[in-house]
Design goal:
Order of helices and strands of chain B: HHHHH
CATH architecture of chain B: Orthogonal Bundle
Order of helices and strands of chain A: HHHHHEEHHHHEEEEHHE
CATH class of chain B: Mainly Alpha
Distance between the termini of chain A: 44 Å
Largest sheet of chain A: 3 strands, mixed
CATH topology of chain A: Cytochrome Bc1 Complex, Chain D, domain 2
Number of domains of chain A: 1
Largest interface: A-B, 23 and 29 residues
Largest sheet of chain B: none
Distance between the termini of chain B: 45 Å
Strand content of chain B: under 5%
Structural class of chain B: mainly alpha
Oligomer: heterodimer
Number of strands of chain B: 0
Amino acid sequence: MAKLLKMGMMLLLSPLIWADQPKSGYDYLQAETQAMQDDEFANPGMATVDMGHALFNTPGNNGRRCSDCHGEDGEKLDPKKIARYPIYNPELGRPFTLQQQVNFCWEEHLDNIPFVPGCTELVALETFVRNRARGEPVNVDISGPMRPFYEAGKALYHTRFGQMNMACYVCHDQYAGQYLRGQILTEGQTNGFPEYRLGSGRITSLQRRLEECLRSFRAEPFERDADEYIDLEVYLNARGNGLPIETPAVRY
Amino acid sequence: MVCRYCQRIIISLLPLVVSPLAAAEGFVPWQAVGDSIPQPLGGLTGDASRGREIARRKDLGNCLACHRLPIPEAGFQGTVGPPLDGIASRLNAGQIRLRVADESRRIPTTVMPPFHKDPTTLNQVADDYYGKPVLNAQQLEDVVAYLMTLQ
């Protein structure tokens, strides 16, 4: 009986504790790695920010540059708006990610051939743009037309996949702080993406990270920019609403 | 790489062509009684030293990703699952067999992968692993035999 009561209490309390206070992957890093992320000169992801900055100032086929509208250093970009992505795109009737927005401008406003989703240049531009909003709390609005996509992402987060029959929540909601071999598990928050990975030594977009998680339990990843990835991004970003943007985060 | 649908056809034809291989890779149905699978899969006998090797290797059982085991040469051992030293004094072979074959039968929200679950019940399996359980029946029995040595 006492055990049942205790379980009941935990069930009542745990959603409160956890829904209100998402925890960044940063909090699970060793102090030296945190220091590396915080120091602009030591953070290896800053090389990608610089690459994005250069592309931001490169003329497109019509001679225009991103910086013509948004400022040479992106100073006319509004960090509050960047923190809201993915946003609802009424023309598509679907959510639009920050990476898709960048690619849209590249094609429509600079008259360029669009990038392949997830390619190096596009991720570099996305990294530069999201870095402009460093420190801004993530703030995805899921009250209106975004709601069904948030729910779809949440359902995927709780769906089992692959030969090992795993779902995102079984690792990231139940075992944050525990070790999978030498690797500490975190809540799987998205506020640091695109992020620099010390293991592979390269910048990693969110979709690439999700591919790695899916492969790790022997599931076939989705196609790049598949609705499933976009819906997951809506859910994951909204789940971390309030966490400061860390792009480019440093992770293992 | 062969696509999933062609692979499904190839796999369904495989038993006709190379039955010994298919038997080594395939799923052997089992019957749970309460929280246990009393009968060894396919009537096979496990080998504890092979089981230890399977538990250690990352490409096979990779049990150490989550559990602590008395395998000192393995380095980092996970903390996601309970330590398994002394497991045979808590559980019998049938109970261990069910937990390794499919722990989600007991605990629906478990993180522990099912090592011998009917592959047709799995969702979106990567092409390279399509149609196979993580461990075949012999490997599963080897792991059970190894855990039974951990008194």
